[in-house]
């Protein structure tokens, strides 16, 4: 199993509260890469969730050897030292959660833009569910406490707003969070989005394009270049001039 598949499986195990499996998988990851901060943080949480506070402290301290200001590890140490650990319930068999496996056209992994308050971001963990909220000119992503986390990139947001207004629904989770430079542009929050329902209007249109449309205008003689408008016949998208400007405030919860 390569590192990417192993990481995705480890995150999926945590999402599904399969803590023993999460410990096993993350131990494999840190053995392969002793500086894998995310794996050590996941390992620390898994130990906490199974009541193994001493091992959790060891895992978080390993993170701090590489990144001494890592907020996830610092918070994890505080939790291990200052309060009683309440064990998580067993995974629910009636609602299996995805293992971050990508399906062309149905799922997408992306970095959020215009991130929110660093203090809010520092409370997040990989596997946390988030909410997708369509606004008038953007698509925001909120935490379970309805705190702003960031927004989808503008090019994707314009497409998603149309799908959301038509009745498409989506589930979303935190994929990864890099807080190494929380006050710099290097901070990144990556989420995993999965289409859970496709409206009748877009029954044959995937939410996320599998291939990007290329343009060769720069290599074409000027006399052969014709002005073309984007083809929206297959997606039902409207041009910016004709798109309604009504505000969309409906929230689509990240759980199916």
Explain what the structure shows.
The chain has seven helices and seven strands. It is an alpha+beta fold and 256 residues long. It folds into two domains: 3-82, Tetratricopeptide repeat domain (Serine Threonine Protein Phosphatase 5, Tetratricopeptide repeat); 102-256, Alpha-Beta Plaits (2-Layer Sandwich). The strands form two sheets. It has a four-stranded antiparallel beta sheet with strand order 4-3-2-7. A three-stranded antiparallel beta sheet has the order 1-6-5, with no helix packed on it. Strand 2 (131-134) and strand 3 (139-142) form a beta hairpin. Helix 1 (3-15) runs antiparallel to helix 2, helix 2 packs antiparallel against helix 3 (37-49) and helix 4 (53-66) packs antiparallel against helix 5. The longest helix has 14 residues, at 19-32.
Index terms:
single chain; 256 residues; alpha+beta; Serine Threonine Protein Phosphatase 5, Tetratricopeptide repeat; Alpha-Beta Plaits; 2 domains; 3-stranded antiparallel sheet; 7 helices; disordered C terminus
In short:
The chain has 256 residues and is α+β, with helices and mostly antiparallel strands.
Structural topology:
Layout: H1 3-15, H2 19-32, H3 37-49, H4 53-66, H5 71-82, E1 107-111, H6 118-121, E2 131-134, E3 139-142, E4 148-151, H7 154-166, E5 169-178, E6 188-197, E7 251-252
Could you name the ranges where pLDDT drops below 50 across 5 or more consecutive residues?
Answer: 85-98, 212-230, 237-256
Class of secondary structure makeup = alpha+beta
Per DSSP E runs of 2 or more residues, the count of β-strands stands at: 7
Instruction: Give the biggest beta sheet.
Output: 4 strands, antiparallel
Specify the oligomeric state.
Answer: single chain
Give the ordered list of helices and strands: HHHHHEHEEEHEEE
- Through-space gap between termini: 29 Å
Read across the widest sheet, the strand sequence of neighbours is 4-3-2-7
pLDDT averaged residue by residue: 76
**Broad shape:** globular
| Named CATH topology of the largest domain | Alpha-Beta Plaits
> Any idea what the CATH architecture of the largest domain is?
2-Layer Sandwich
Identify the CATH class of the largest domain: Alpha Beta
How many domain regions?
2
In DSSP terms (H or I, runs of 4 or more residues), the helix count works out at 7
What is the share of helical residues? 25-40%
What is the rounded Rg?
21 Å
Binned strand content: 15-25%
